[in-house]
Amino acid sequence: MEPISSVETIATVIQLAVAPVFLLAGIAGLLNVLSVRLGRVVDRVRVVETRLFKEKHDEHRAMLQSETNSLWNRIRLVDWSIRTFVAGALIVCLVIVALFLSELSHFNLSAAIAFLFVCAMVLVIVGLLLFLFEVSISTSSIREGIDSMIKEELDLRMESVDE
């Protein structure tokens, strides 16, 4: 291994590493969003499961059980999304390390760097897709909740008209 040739070489490698560092910043922002969503869903599960335990009416229990199942699916999706983003971020870190090693040791690691970067991007894509699925479940459960509230309100009005 030869000594570092110059400050210019290090500056060049740092410039090459800037794009992956920005990618890390973007992933960190997404991880923040996901951790907040996870916390909110976990809080909601606790509330719904407490209500489920206390509920006496079978119809309401079924609705609460359905919501609980949906919330647990969301938790799994957010969990896996976080895992894939973290794995992607770790691989981006390896890309940065490989960039420095390649330049400073004069080993040609370009194929490894390209492979690692593609792996990182695939993990980011998977994380985004999991996040998209979680958002889809969230919005559909909101629609289902609104529909059931409307149905319940109509049933109550029909009962009062019949009396």
Keywords:
rod-shaped; mainly alpha; 163 residues
Can you give a write-up of this model?
This protein is mainly α. The protein is 91% helix and 0% strand. It is built from three helices and no strands. The chain has helices spanning 7-54, 58-105, 110-162. Helix 1 (7-54) packs antiparallel against helix 2 and helix 2 (58-105) runs antiparallel to helix 3 (110-162). The N and C termini lie far apart (92 Å).
- Shape estimate: rod-shaped
Run of helices and strands:
HHH
> Would you count the extended β strands for me?
0
How many domain modules? Answer: 1
Low-confidence stretches: none
By DSSP (H or I, 4+ residues per run), the number of helices equals 3
Strand content: under 5%
Helical residues, percent: over 70%
Estimated structural class: mainly alpha
Rg result: 25 Å
Mean pLDDT: 87
Biggest sheet details: none
Distance between the termini: 92 Å
Give a brief outline of the structure:
The protein is mainly α and 163 residues long. It is 91% helix and 0% strand.
Topology readout:
Layout: H1 7-54, H2 58-105, H3 110-162
